[in-house]
Model the fold of this input.
Amino acid sequence: MNEIKYNYRYLARFIIEAVTPLAVGSGEKDIASDSLVMRDINGLPYIPGTAIAGVLRHCIGEEKAKAYFGRHDSTSPEGRHGSDLIITEARMIGKDGQVVDGLQNINYSDEFYAHFLELPVRQHVCISNKGTAVAGGKFDNQVVFKGTRFCFEIELLSSNADRKNDFDDIIKALHSGFIRLGGNTRKGFGQIEVRSLRTAVLDLCNPDELDLYCEKTSSLNDKYWKAWRKDYQVEKTSSDKYDKYELKIKPEDFYLFGSGMGDEEADMTPVKSTYIEWNDWGEPHFCGTPCILIPASSVKGAIAHRVAFYYNDYASHCADDQMPVEELNVLSGSNNLAVRELFGYIGKTEEEQKPGNIFISDIISSNPVNDKILNHVSIDYFTGGAINGALFSEKVLYDTHTYTLTLLLQKAEYSKGVIEALESALMDICRGMLPLGGGVNRGHGYFNGELFKNGELYGRKSE
Done:
């Protein structure tokens, strides 16, 4: 077998920022959470290189992936080769703007690092097609703050100088804005953005460039390596794998996305989140007070329910008293054809389950939080009086800011009427006909605005 000589090195160093919270799971749990994030030797979050490699492999496609990640689908040695791509772990960037690389003495009494001792825990509950919680359907997972930055490197080995296009494919994939890292990416987590990129291309047959390569250290803090270049140009292109929908909406009145907990003022409180901001000098700090959070998982459930309605209408599926239960189940929930094709489904075996084709991003806004406490009491239908012990209060939000809800739809072959059902559901949100969040039966959660598809206004402006 001929030995391959990798004379060329294509290198890139990325600094990425979490646009939405990250949930890179460790596979472990504790008393506070069902799913804990990965932590390094210093106790700080990090992203394994395998997580980045897996996303890249999926993004560039299976055929191209064989050229990057190697192959083992042949019985002969000539048909197998190892990966040409080396990916490091993505290490967190600390308070001083430096990568926390290697074993360090972290001062967890510092206000910045103290936040990472107890990361946020996001609550979830599975809702049935009847709009009620499924028994045993509550779960939660730990996430990394929005705004957290990580640094990692990629090295592409080559035996010749004609792999620039391959190198470009990798960089464009990470720059595309369509990459999601970690778990629960279809529930709003994992969106990233490249904040810094340095590249280098070296010919190891050139003695000077070989010396440069030998001088490079493995430290992610080595910013002054002479071979690094910042002039790499990334061509902005539209995705051939996703359609991008943007809902620019603002609330008509009160809205509430519940935290599942109360406080000293109200029995029901809105979920909030804190995040990291970066100044012009590359120094991070946490926002002063918890901010408005619109969880993608809440929006996803409402859209799925309305998609089932529109698809049934399109397909002329109508329920009646004489219809068997089995047929009724097909019309609603995860058994609905449109819901299954768009949002996926689960089963006991791998063949009986399919991931969804829709990715929705959380909204975490720095807009001022305005809240109001509303008191409620349940009324006895027979006497017209208050039911004893049925008084409760809720803390709702209100403002006039416009929020951008982003939804990515993977391009695929869908059944007739499925896309139309999805777009009709999205337009209902923009028209104020599909409320979001909790307390919708009490008048909360109505928004209005505009829908954009791939940057262009969809339909007419809502009134």
